[in-house]
């Protein structure tokens, strides 16, 4: 009986993929990215050392290709396009800032353009000295930044939501997007293909069509019903999208990874829920992608690579180009941050892996570089990814988020705002009560956590003078709706994250909701309170008791992302009541996992809740 291809090599690779993260954990080498460790393991079991894996095995070739495609899909999925439209927090003060930041998007685009210009300069220098001739490929390789290394490093350090973290992330997003487009044009330009380059417009056209179809399906009630149990229609739709765009990309003469990357961008724009993203990550990083990275190591022939004397020139030169092309443009941030933070950011942006591997593989396939040169590029990327995250963690100042507090500005001094200001001031909350001198004769004295600020008028100049908009929350609680409306618009202009608006005139409710302000209606609150007292008197007592009240916490700390409640390290006088995740409402139990953006409702002592709020919300 004739047998098909052996699965022995596949079994070895899958076993290696299983054991690699376990070994990293047991050996406590957390500084080493898992994907780099997988390449190193591939080197050990591959051609360079043990040679126990058949690199030509058809099973491995298919799964490795799928891993490569899925890696590019997840690279597109990691891009947060909201980052390009976020308002600048330029006027908001921070203890780590020397001066207010300008428009963040313009700043990060300028940094990337600097990286691109220096990459071109270094490519010209390398060509003139005879180190390497292909300038276009060198520009792509030097200027790219790996989101797959930057994002986990920032999350692990709890810096992804900080001002510096957002700048690093946005530079990496722009670099990833731009260099992927450049790589697509490079492969189209030099590949031996009879397809004209304008056919790529067909791919873009279908991508736009699939995006609008995806929006329709995403809002369909039928699709939501089919997205549970064994059907999982959402995951099936994502895989169908990937395969269709990969096939279309190959059909128009482009690289298949371009189609996969565009598919990831489309899914990112559709804003999938956290559960869907988690499932896609599980598919990719749980099976397909480890096989691809291990096979990259298997294919590396280090003895042959180091027999070429150019390796001792090209790799150090590339590493120097990687570092200098990032450190020099990032130096503009010295106007806003200290030297340690800026230097650490430059090192982290030097992390580069996935796209260098993609560029090396594609350039070798189309005959632009040799296998030895491809190996040199990959090896330089691996070395960069081992060194730069470690240097970043050592350089970046510790404890940026240690002193966390929520700054609240309350506009108006009346029977509603004053008691609320007194009740929340202290501990986590620092309250600033602002009022017009003609409307009060308050003689209350300011304390450490509650300050009374009298102003001549509700003008932007007067409010800026007392730093009224240097706040996480602005509450518009004045008795005059015109004052509330004007100050709310000023707060929005200054980039205040939460604006709570008091509405006494029902005609104003729609206008307030359209602006995205949080609505507070004294009339509605009174009705709710009266109804609650009639129907559930004990519940109302629970809600109004400061020691047994129900609290809400927004989960922003990536350290606890994907952690089960049974493993949650905090213990104390607290009970988890409910978790809101997107449109879902979950009753928590030991096996319930916490995810970033979850809204957690709990009851317990106020002191402990505030401590937990500081930790999870990272104020």
TrEMBL record:
PROSITE patterns: RCK_C (PS51202). GO terms for molecular function: antiporter activity; monoatomic cation transmembrane transporter activity. It is found in: Membrane. The keyword Cytoplasm does not apply. Keywords: Antiport, Ion transport, Membrane, Transmembrane, Transmembrane helix, Transport. Its main location: membrane. Residues 537-618 form the RCK C-terminal domain. Coiled coil: none annotated. It comes from the Bacteria. One of its GO terms (cellular component) is membrane. It holds the Pfam family TrkA_C. One of its GO terms (biological process) is potassium ion transport. The chain crosses the membrane at residues 6-24, 31-50, 62-84, 105-129, 135-155, 167-191, 197-217, 238-270, 282-300, 312-337, 343-363, 375-396. It is a multi-pass membrane protein. Belongs to the monovalent cation:proton antiporter 2 (CPA2) transporter (TC 2.A.37) family. This is Sodium:proton antiporter. It comes from Salinicoccus cyprini.
């Amino acid at each position: 009986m004739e047998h098909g291809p052996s699965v022995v090599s596949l079994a070895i690779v899958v076993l290696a993929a299983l054991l690699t993260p376990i070994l990293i954990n047991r050996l406590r080498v957390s500084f080493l990215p898992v994907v780099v460790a997988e390449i190193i393991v591939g080197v050990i079991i591959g051609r360079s050392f043990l040679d126990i894996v058949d690199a030509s095995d058809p099973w491995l070739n298919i799964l490795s290709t799928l891993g490569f495609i899925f890696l590019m899909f997840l690279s597109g999925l990691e891009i947060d396009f909201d980052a390009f439209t976020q308002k600048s927090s330029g006027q908001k003060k921070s203890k780590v800032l020397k001066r207010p930041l300008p428009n963040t998007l313009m700043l990060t685009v300028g940094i990337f353009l600097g990286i691109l210009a220096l990459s071109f300069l270094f490519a010209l220098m390398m060509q003139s000295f005879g180190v390497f001739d292909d300038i276009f490929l060198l520009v792509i390789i030097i200027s790219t930044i790996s989101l797959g290394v930057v994002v986990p490093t920032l999350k692990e350090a709890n810096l992804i939501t900080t001002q510096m973290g957002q700048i690093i992330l946005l530079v990496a997003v722009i670099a990833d997007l731009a260099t992927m487009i450049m790589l697509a044009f490079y492969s189209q330009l030099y590949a031996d293909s009879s397809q004209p380059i304008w056919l790529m417009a067909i791919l873009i056209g279908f991508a736009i069509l699939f995006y609008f179809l995806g929006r329709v399906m995403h809002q369909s009630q039928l699709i939501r019903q089919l997205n549970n149990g064994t059907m999982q229609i959402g995951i099936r739709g994502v895989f169908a999208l990937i395969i269709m765009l990969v096939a279309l990309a190959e059909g128009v003469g482009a690289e298949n990874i371009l189609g996969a990357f565009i598919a990831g961008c489309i899914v990112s724009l559709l804003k999938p829920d956290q559960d869907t993203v988690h499932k896609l990550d599980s598919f990719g990083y749980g099976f397909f992608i480890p096989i691809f990275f291990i096979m990259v190591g298997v294919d590396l022939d280090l003895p042959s690579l180091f027999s070429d004397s150019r390796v001792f020139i090209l790799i150090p030169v590339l590493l120097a180009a990687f570092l200098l092309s990032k450190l020099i443009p990032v130096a503009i941030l010295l106007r806003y941050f200290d030297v340690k933070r800026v230097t650490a950011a430059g090192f982290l942006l030097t992390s580069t892996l996935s796209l260098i591997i993609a560029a090396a593989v594609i350039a070798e396939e189309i005959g632009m570089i040799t296998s030895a040169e491809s190996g040199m590029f990959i090896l330089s990327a691996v070395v960069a990814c081992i060194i730069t995250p470690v240097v970043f963690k050592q350089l970046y100042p510790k404890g940026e988020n240690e002193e966390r507090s929520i700054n609240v500005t309350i506009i108006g001094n009346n029977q509603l705002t004053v008691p609320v200001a007194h009740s929340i001031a202290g501990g986590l909350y620092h309250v600033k009560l602002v009022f017009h001198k003609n409307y009060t004769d308050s003689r209350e004295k300011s304390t450490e956590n509650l300050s009374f600020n009298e102003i001549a008028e509700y003008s932007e100049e007067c409010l800026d003078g007392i730093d009224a908009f240097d706040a996480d929350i602005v509450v518009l609680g004045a008795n005059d709706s015109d004052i509330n409306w004007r100050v709310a618009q000023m707060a929005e202009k200054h980039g205040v994250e939460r604006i709570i608006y008091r509405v006494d005139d029902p005609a104003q409710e729609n206008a307030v909701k359209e602006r995205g302000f949080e609505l507070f209606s004294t009339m509605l609150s009174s009705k709710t309170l009266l109804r609650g007292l009639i129907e559930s008197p004990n519940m109302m007592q629970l809600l109004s008791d400061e020691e047994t009240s129900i609290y809400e916490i927004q989960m922003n700390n990536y350290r606890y992302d994907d952690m089960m409640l049974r493993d949650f390290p905090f213990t104390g006088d607290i009970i988890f009541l409910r978790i809101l995740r997107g449109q879902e409402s979950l009753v928590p139990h030991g096996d319930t996992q916490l995810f970033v953006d979850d809204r957690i409702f709990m009851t317990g002592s106020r002191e402990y809740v505030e401590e937990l709020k500081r930790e999870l919300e990272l104020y």
